Structure formats: structure tokens, C-alpha cells
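Posting for a labmate who doesn't have an account.
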Amino acid sequence: MTLMILADTHIAKAISVQLRQKGVDALRLEEIADMPNNSSDKQILTYATVRGRAVLSLDDDFDVLHTEWLSQGKSHAGIFRGQSYLQGNIGIIVNNLIEYHELIVSGAGTMEDLRSQLIFIS
């Protein structure tokens, strides 16, 4: 088992590259043929949820979307949300996600543990 991530369009390519090197199943929005780069956050979250992937984004819109989904009784596969100042801090984002990946790989955690969680990266 591995951490499965869908990175929002503004997430640096280097983040996905480094995550993949560490064994994370990291998919970038631009790599999905049927999802345009200008997809709405709702479309991104829906796509990720159907495929069991947590979303990685720096958009605070996901905070609102998370709350809306829970209030409607919906669940999602997890949201990792960083602050915009992290855009240039690739190492911080990668290291935070690797911690979750290692929990999953070791069996101490699962993707299910991330279900409907909004996790802030700092």
C-alpha cells in the first residue's frame, strides 16, 4: 500500500517527482487527459475521491469545499493543504507527505485513515 496523491495544477512538478522517487503514487492534474488544468476545485476533489486519492493543494478554497462536503454527508479521500508561502518550499511539502506515506507503507496507517480529513501542511 502507498500514499496516493492528486496534486493540484499549481503544485510544483518537482514535488511530484520527489514524491514518486520516495514511492508515493503522485499524480499531477496536468497528467490526466480528461481533466483540464483549469478544472474547478470541486471537479478535482470529485475526481480524486472516486479514485481514492488525497488532494494536495495550496488553495484555501479546499477548506470551504471540505466543510461543504461534510455538511452534505459526503466524504473524500483526504486533503493535504499547504499555505501559499510553501509554494517555493518543496522540501517542507515533500517531507510532510513522506511522513504519511511511511505510516501507510509500515502498516501503521492506511489511506482510509485520511478519509474526510483536512490536513494542514506547515
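Reply:
Got it, the C-alpha cells are right above this. The chain has a mean pLDDT of 94.
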